[in-house]
Design brief:
Length: 163
């Protein structure tokens, strides 16, 4: 008869050794995982204050940059508005100059006053004779608002309009 008790004991020992090895391997791996996790958490906890300072610096930089951007945008808007006003002013000046160029067709005159508005230019001037104005009225469109004949000259008020 075979002695199975001896083989049974050998098998139990081998199973025990196998279980002990696996338990030891599992324990070592769990300890290494726990140790690496604790080292990682420790390094993260040490880095967090530095990172929070960096984050606060980045937030401050972001707010200052956004303020600078809004200031730049406001400056650009103001410059654009100023340029637009300047262009409108130049257009008005060229229109007024074109109105006053019509005066060059009158022979001899002396300007007394110039009143300028958006729609018209009123020129008060002194001419030698009324005939100087009547000869130019057909070629050069202007309205005569006031005529004051004098002893030596005629004072007239002319209205130049765009139409």
């Amino acid at each position: 008869m075979l002695n199975l008790i001896h083989w049974r004991g050998v098998m139990i020992r081998k199973r025990f050794i196998w279980c002990a090895r696996w338990c030891l391997f599992l324990t070592v791996s769990l300890i290494s995982v726990a140790l690496s996790a604790s080292i990682m958490l420790l390094s993260l906890s040490k880095d967090l204050p530095g990172r929070s300072e960096q984050l606060a610096d980045l937030v401050r930089q972001n707010t200052t940059m956004s303020q600078q951007l809004s200031e730049m945008q406001l400056s650009v808007d103001q410059r654009l508005q100023a340029q637009t006003q300047q262009l409108e002013h130049q257009a008005q000046i060229s229109l007024r100059l074109s109105r006053l160029q019509r005066l060059s067709l009158i022979d001899a005159f002396r300007v007394i006053a110039v009143t300028d508005s958006k729609d018209s230019t009123v020129v008060r001037l002194q001419v030698g004779e009324m005939a100087q104005l009547t000869s130019q009225a057909l070629e050069n469109p202007f309205d005569v608002r006031l005529v004051q004949p004098g002893e030596y000259a005629v004072i007239a008020e002319l209205v130049f309009s765009d139409g």
